[in-house]
Amino acid sequence: MLVLHSPLCLSPTENRLIPTELRQEALALQGSLEFDDAGGEGVTSHVDDEYRWAGVEDPKELKFVFPGAQRMNRGRHEVGALVRACKANGVTDLLVVHEHRGTPVGLIVSHLPFGPTAYFTLCNVVMRHDIPDLGTMSEAKPHLITHGFSSRLGKRVSDILRYLFPVPKDDSHRVITFANQDDYISFRHHVYKKVDHRHVELTEVGPRFELKPYMIRLGTLEQEATADVEWRWHPYTNTARKRVFLSAE
After folding, report:
1. Which end of the chain has a smaller Cβ tally under 10 Å, C or N?
2. What's the average model confidence in pLDDT over 175-191?
3. Cα–Cα distance between 36 and 239 in angstroms, integer?
4. Where would I find the Brix domain in this sequence (predicted)?
């Protein structure tokens, strides 16, 4: 809109009072301009762009965590087609990462060809680029440490996670830890080197995050509608906050 010689425009610049007959119109314009600014950082439209941060923290880092993994964008492919393609190519596990505005919030692990499929909530995610002074990530097959999985369900979840990794070589200096505490599984990734015959130097290489399991289904990912539920977390029961499922304590 182009306005020429309007009293509303002249009064602020010349430090004069707005004429009486225009004050109501000025108040209305002031109210309409209250939210007429540049918006938040990086917003280029009056429409809230909820996909602005999508891809900022990309789950591609998981490709380097699991030896032999291949990353792909789902795009418009339906889940059934992806699972069939994985089975046809001898894939052992299908991992699906859910994100919200670029931050990973969920992980699905589906073992092929017959299941099970485990569902996890992701929290406290720290990507590699957020950890200072990191070098390149080793792609050697890692040694695994699992701690705190003492119940029957805990051993089941531990098996689902540790069989994502191949058998390492004895001289591998890469270590991945899954440590359970109060049903939150801490994932940590380190490399070590021997300083001398008595000391070892441990270096975190990331990423790091916490996993909270909430469901295990029999069958593969595309069978959600028909597969039986082996276990499900019920957060709205009276004892949900007090009970732990992955450890016998």
Report:
1. N
2. 95
3. 49
4. 60-222
Residue 217's nearest CA partner among 239, 236, 232 is 232
Lowest mean pLDDT among 9-23, 40-54, 63-77, 79-93: 40-54
Give me the residue label for tokens 């599984």: 185
Token pair recorded at residue 247: 């450890």
56-69 as b/e: b if 16+ CB within 10 A: ebebebbbbbbbee
Residue 208, strand partner residues: 126
Q: For residues 232 and 71, what is the distance between their CA atoms, to the nearest angstrom?
A: 28
Strand duo 174-181 + 143-147: pairing: parallel
The top-level CATH class assigned to 2-7+20-32+58-232 is alpha beta
Cβ-proximal residues to 145 (8 Å cutoff; 6+ apart), any chain: 175, 176, 177, 178, 179
> How far, in Å, CA of 109 to CA of 107, rounded?
7
For residue 145, report the phi and psi dihedrals to the nearest 5 degrees: -125, 120
**Host H or E run for residue 9:** helix 7-13
Tokens representing 139 are 């792609």
